[in-house]
Write a structure and sequence with these properties.
The chain is mostly beta strands and about 190 residues long. Helices cover about 15% and strands about 35% of the residues.
Length: about 190
């Protein structure tokens, strides 16, 4: 029995050391208290992970979207919780006469550290700490069937702003939905 324990320690000790050297910590994947994790303001990029179907639905209607977001620290190159303001800009792409699209700001979410606290995920992922945002737009915003763009941003405490890449979507149309015919100008 003693010999078996000796071999187990000899096998597991190098593996544990390798994990620590690779940046793994015992808390990865285990539950944490997000409110007690130190924040970082040295954000250099924003990484978004969109689910295959990012839509929030209420009945048949699409009322928002969900996305996982990492605010990547320049120092650690991992996701961190942030003390500054998080933004999410929602644009509707409106067809123009030239055959292209005009970006029209449809809505902006603005979350300070206290507002964003409830969106912190209570487990550390492989890429660090991250947020899970289910963001609902106002009830009067009808975007079914419309082309939209979403961009996230972070305003550091020094007021400089880091922006994510833009993601374009066509908002699904519910079954049986009938849109009004397009209006023509006189």
């Amino acid at each position: 029995m003693h010999r078996l324990l000796h071999y187990a320690v000899r096998l597991l000790l190098p593996a544990g050391a390798a994990l620590l050297l690779a940046g793994c910590t015992p808390e990865r994947g285990t539950e944490i208290n997000p409110a007690k994790i130190k924040t970082g303001d040295d954000i250099v990029k924003i990484v978004q992970f969109w689910p295959q179907s990012p839509w929030l639905q209420e009945g048949e209607h699409i009322v928002g979207f969900k996305v996982t977001v990492y605010f990547v620290s320049g120092q650690t190159e991992k996701g961190t919780f942030v003390p500054g303001t998080i933004f999410a800009w929602l644009y509707e792409l409106v067809p123009n006469k030239a055959g292209g699209y005009e970006k029209k700001l449809a809505y902006v979410w603005q979350l300070d550290e206290a507002d964003a606290l409830g969106f912190r995920i209570n487990k550390r992922g492989v890429m660090g700490y991250h947020y899970g945002f289910p963001l609902r737009w106002p009830d009067n915003l009808a975007l079914e069937g419309k082309l939209i763009e979403i961009q996230l941003g972070y305003e550091r405490l020094n007021k400089s702003v880091i922006q994510s890449s833009v993601r374009r979507f066509r908002v699904p149309v519910p079954m049986g939905y009938e849109s009004l015919p397009p209006t023509t100008e006189p």
